[in-house]
Specification:
By secondary structure, the protein is of the alpha/beta class. It has 2 domains: 171 residues, Rossmann fold, CATH 3.40.50; 102 residues, no CATH class. 38% of the residues lie in helices and 15% in strands. A 7-stranded mixed beta sheet has the order 3-2-1-4-7-9-8, with helices on both faces. Strands 5-6 form a two-stranded antiparallel sheet. Strand 5 and strand 6 form a beta hairpin. Helix 1 crosses helix 2 and helix 3 packs across helix 6. The longest helix has 18 residues. The radius of gyration is 20 Å and the shape is elongated.
């Protein structure tokens, strides 16, 4: 089993895009596990990088990291956010009408994709974050709070929010501002001058077959699930064969709920990181696996 001294985990919120399947909840622990068990002198390959949560933590820790994902939209959005300022983040707030217009475009820019991501329900880029009844009210209120108070996460302390909340008791919260606040945190990476340690690609995992002496953090699609980038159902059997071979010359960590291949064993279990997915894996804990 791998060790983890939780007292050494970085304070503060985890970073990364609000991306489906993101490991943001456990990203700080994962990087600390890597540091405590394998050191800090090896290149880390975040091969199924998704929204960049693991990559962001590597950069904050001063680790050299290679961020890869077949979804170029994801890596482009990550790269855009970490290179822009606060005013750009503000520009991502859109109304329901603008959201629907962008969603129906055939050719979307990086800005378009970011607007869909942060203004959508469940960050799925399909439906606007708020129902039609309150969409305009909440959007106008968010715009007013930014204009008058220039705040994202602290909006509930503003008189603008408090006055509107008393008047319209059904508001609950402004999810758009919360999302913008999370994106702004990624700007820390540029401020810390960490971007020189970042490499970004959009390759199939097999493209890294010749790498030696590195640490691979692998968060592949779950077994028997589809993945657009892999043109249908992800072939877990081929992937496990590849990971097994890679482990002969690298440190290889696989993140999953379960692995059916008995060449791998669980080396760490995140007991508080449970799946909410349906279809047979709900309630299981996220784990890290390595070759036996």
């Amino acid at each position: 089993m791998l060790i983890l001294d939780e007292k050494k985990i970085r304070k503060g919120r985890p970073l990364g895009l609000p991306y489906q399947g993101s490991k943001k909840k456990i990203s700080k622990k994962i990087i600390e596990i890597i540091k405590q068990n394998f050191g800090t002198d090896k290149m880390i390959y975040d091969v199924f990088g998704g929204g960049g949560a693991i990559t962001a933590e590597c950069l904050l820790s001063g680790l050299n990291v290679h961020y890869n994902d077949l979804d170029k939209d994801a890596t482009d959005m990550f790269a855009k956010v970490i290179s822009e300022d606060r005013n750009y983040i503000k520009s991502l707030l859109v109304s329901r009408e603008e959201f629907l217009t962008i969603r129906d475009k055939d050719d979307k820019t990086v800005d378009d994709n970011l607007k869909l991501l942060v203004n959508s329900f469940g960050n799925k880029s399909k439906d606007y974050l708020y129902g039609k009844e309150h969409a305009d009210i909440k959007y106008r209120l968010a715009i007013e709070i930014i204009r008058k108070h220039d705040t994202f996460s602290g909006y509930k302390q503003t008189d603008t929010w408090l006055n509107q909340y008393r008047e319209l008791g059904q508001l609950q919260q402004l999810g758009q501002l919360q999302q913008l606040g999370r994106l702004q945190q990624l700007g820390q990476l540029e401020q810390l001058g960490q971007l020189e340690q970042l490499h970004i690609t959009n390759l199939d995992y097999r493209a890294f077959s010749e790498v030696e002496g590195a640490i691979f953090y692998l968060d592949p699609p779950y077994e028997n699930t589809t993945h657009i980038g892999y043109k249908g159902c992800f072939d877990s059997i081929d992937f496990y064969d590849w990971a097994f071979e890679m482990s002969k010359k690298n440190k290889v960590l696989i993140s999953s709920y379960e692995i059916s291949d008995d060449r791998f064993k669980c080396v760490y279990e995140f007991k508080t990181a449970r799946s909410t997915m349906q279809g047979g894996i709900g309630g299981k804990c996220e784990k890290l696996f390595m070759v036996k």
